[in-house]
Amino acid sequence: xxxxxxxxxxxxxxxxxxxxxxxxxxxxxxxxxxxxxxxxxxxxxxxxxxxxxxxxxxxxxxxxxxxxxxxxxxxxxxxxxxxxxxxxxxxxxxxxxxxxxxxxxxxxxxxxxxxxxxxxxxxxxxxxxxxxxxxxxxxxxxxxxxxxxxxxxxxxx
Length: 157
Known about the structure:
Blueprint: H1 2-16, H2 18-23, E1 34-40, E2 45-47, E3 51-52, E4 55-56, E5 59-66, E6 72-78, H3 95-100, E7 106-115, E8 119-122, E9 138-141
Parallel strand pairs: 6-8
Antiparallel strand pairs: 1-5, 1-7, 2-5, 3-4, 5-6, 7-8, 7-9
C-alpha cells in the first residue's frame, strides 16, 4: 500500500510538473514545419515591416538558446498574429508579447527555420487553416497558451 501511494504521488507530481507540462506542446505540422524549444536569451526588439492593405506587418525579434543543441536562434514573430495587435498602433511590440516573453523564459516554437546569415525561425503563428501555406505555428511561453493564434488578419493573404 505504501509503495502504491508513493508511486501515485510520484506520477501525479510528474504529470503536474512544469517540465512535463512544457513537453506537451501541440503538434508542429504543416509545410516546412520545425519545432524548437529553449530559453529566451535576449530582450525583445521591434522591427518595422511593409504595409499590406493598410496594415503594418511589423515583427518582434528575440533570441533563444535551443535546449537540445545550445544553438542560438533568432525568433521573428509577425505581430499581426498577436491577440491584442492593433493596426492603429502597429509601430510597437504587442503588449501580450512584451508582458509574457522575458529573458530566461522557456519557449516552445513551431515555425519555419531559416539561415540568412544567422539561424532563425519565423512563421511562428497559425497558418489560417492552410497547411499547404506554412506551419501550424505557435509561440508558447512557460507551458501556457500560444501567443500567436489570432486569425483576425488572415484576410491579408
